[in-house]
User: Which sequence fits this backbone?
């Protein structure tokens, strides 16, 4: 599985995540704000996941030896991405409400 497959797979997952987060945001927000919030959540969440992946790589051994270690590595990265995406949407909503 080369880099092209990985890129296509990543775009598919990001597309599904954007659609789901737009659907949830549309329940609470008008159309334009829901679209901005969904894209913000997925974009900043992806960046947060990268921060989590590379931030942990500084102190990890070259090979993760157990499946639990790999699962923990990916879980912490996903939580970093989710938290950063949620904070970005929260800041967007606070700015939206103040104007």
Assistant:
């Amino acid at each position: 599985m080369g880099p092209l497959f990985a890129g296509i797979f990543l775009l598919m997952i990001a597309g599904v995540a954007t659609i789901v987060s737009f659907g949830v945001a549309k329940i609470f927000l008008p159309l334009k704000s829901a679209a901005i919030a969904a894209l913000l959540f997925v974009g900043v969440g992806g960046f947060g996941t990268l921060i989590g992946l590379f931030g942990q790589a500084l102190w990890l051994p070259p090979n993760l030896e157990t499946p639990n270690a790999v699962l923990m590595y990916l879980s912490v990265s996903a939580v970093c991405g989710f938290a950063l995406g949620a904070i970005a949407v929260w800041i967007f909503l606070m700015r939206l409400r103040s104007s």
